[in-house]
Every structure is written in structure tokens, then in C-alpha cells.
Design goal:
45% helix; globular
Length: 248
């Protein structure tokens, strides 16, 4: 069992989906957990309650992750209550598609702000609070590795996250390790509509492992990267897609 005992894990975008699952699993592994959430206070409170139920300290802090002052304030508050950051997970993001010909500059800018700018601001806000040996995990996407029709803005933001991660891994070493996890289709509310439109059975048939990914699949890879088991891994992207990328 992976142990994160005695550590503080901060999840930006931790009230729902993969981020919430990661927060809960980190608590199961012994970490104190703080989350930053944008709007859903009830969902954030539920995550905090679950972390407490595992016997760990928890805190939830409201902020738009694309706004520097608000996000920095939330991170500072989390550190003030739970101490230095041993693990930072950047999960904030949106998944929206539109054809290039119909795409507005407002759509493009919003995608880059929420998916990419928030990544930069999360790391910058945490920079002076990292414990020695800290680990940063950024949620990219297989779309950022191969491109995606109709979701070109999303794919571009995710590809940029990967190269930003590699740049940070060089700049912040040896004190901080930085890696990405790149999920394929994963069952969350963020992708419920496209999965329904495509048909879940059709999507599942595209996975060599025969099923759609679950949040715990991604969270498990994240906990590994946060742990000492990954102490010699930095600048890497772990793909969690049930083998789908092998099919092109």
C-alpha cells in the first residue's frame, strides 16, 4: 500500500471528478488533504467530510484557479492550516469542443485560461510552500499527445501542459519533482454528455482493456507519483488510457 502519511496534498480542482477521487484516495493513504474549488461548496464539503472520516485533516478553499490573487490566497490559507505542501495535484479544467470554423477567440481564450493558465498559477502560488522532495502532478490528456478533431483548443491546452511540466521539472529539480498523468476517456461528469452521444458501449469497445476509465484509475497513478516509490521520476507523462492509444 502506498503511504502518504505525514504529508499535505493540495488538489486544485478537488471537488469533483478525478480531483475529488484523488483527494479521497490520498487521505486513505494517510495524507492531510486540502482542495481548491471554484463554485460547488456542497461537493467540496463532501470531500472534506470523507477525508476527515479517514482520520485526516482537511480544508476546502474557494477560488477561480485562473485568477492569480484568488488562487494564491486559497493556497496560502491551505498552507496556513495544514502546513507545507508535499504534493500538489492540478486537476482544474474544462472539456469543451467546437469546430475550428465556428470557434471564437473568446472560446479559445477561456479554454487556455482555465486549463493552462491555472496550471501555471497553481505551481507559482505553491512555489514558496513546497517541502523538500515535493511532487507536482498535472492532469493532461491523451488528446494533448495525439490531437483531437473538434476539441483542438482542449488538445492544445493539454499539449502545452505537458511541455510546461517538462520545463518545470528541469527548473525545480532537485527539490521538486514534476510529472503529468494523461488520462483517456474517464467516467466523470465533465465528459458525460459526449460519452452519452458517442455511446458508452462504442467507446468501451475502443479500449483494449475493454472498459472506460474510472477516476480511481487515474488517482492510483497519481498516488504513485506523489509517493516515494516514484522518487526518481520527474519530467514524465504516465498515460492512463487502457491501451487505447495503441489503436490510434
Amino acid at each position: 500500500m502506498i503511504s502518504l502519511s505525514g504529508r499535505h496534498v493540495l488538489v486544485v480542482g478537488g471537488s469533483r471528478g478525478i480531483g475529488a477521487c484523488t483527494a479521497r484516495m490520498a487521505a486513505q493513504a494517510g495524507a492531510d488533504v486540502s482542495i481548491v474549488y471554484r463554485a460547488d461548496s456542497a461537493a467540496a464539503a463532501a470531500v472534506v467530510a470523507d477525508v476527515n472520516a479517514f482520520g485526516q485533516r482537511a480544508g476546502a478553499y474557494q477560488a477561480d484557479a485562473s485568477q492569480e490573487v484568488a488562487l494564491t490566497g486559497a493556497i496560502n490559507a491551505a498552507v496556513g492550516e495544514l502546513g507545507p505542501i508535499h504534493g500538489l495535484v492540478v486537476s482544474a479544467g474544462i472539456f469543451e469542443g467546437v469546430a475550428i470554423g465556428a470557434m471564437t477567440t473568446e472560446f479559445w481564450d477561456r479554454t487556455m485560461s482555465i486549463n493552462l493558465k491555472s496550471t501555471f498559477l497553481s505551481v507559482k502560488g505553491a512555489l514558496n510552500h513546497f517541502a523538500a522532495g515535493a511532487s507536482v502532478v498535472i492532469y493532461a490528456s491523451t488528446a494533448g499527445q495525439r490531437g483531437s478533431a473538434v476539441y483542438s483548443a482542449y488538445a492544445t491546452s493539454k499539449a502545452a501542459q505537458i511541455i510546461f511540466m517538462r520545463s518545470m521539472a528541469l527548473e525545480l529539480a532537485p527539490k521538486v519533482r514534476v510529472n503529468c498523468v494523461a488520462p483517456g476517456w474517464t467516467e466523470t461528469d465533465m465528459v458525460d454528455v459526449p460519452l452519452t452521444e458517442l455511446g458508452r458501449e462504442n467507446v468501451a469497445a475502443g479500449f483494449p482493456l475493454g472498459r472506460i476509465g474510472q477516476p480511481a484509475d487515474v488517482a492510483g497513478a497519481t498516488l504513485f507519483l506523489l509517493s516515494d516509490l516514484a522518487g526518481f521520476i520527474t519530467g514524465a507523462t504516465i498515460t492512463v488510457d487502457g491501451g487505447m492509444d495503441m489503436r490510434g
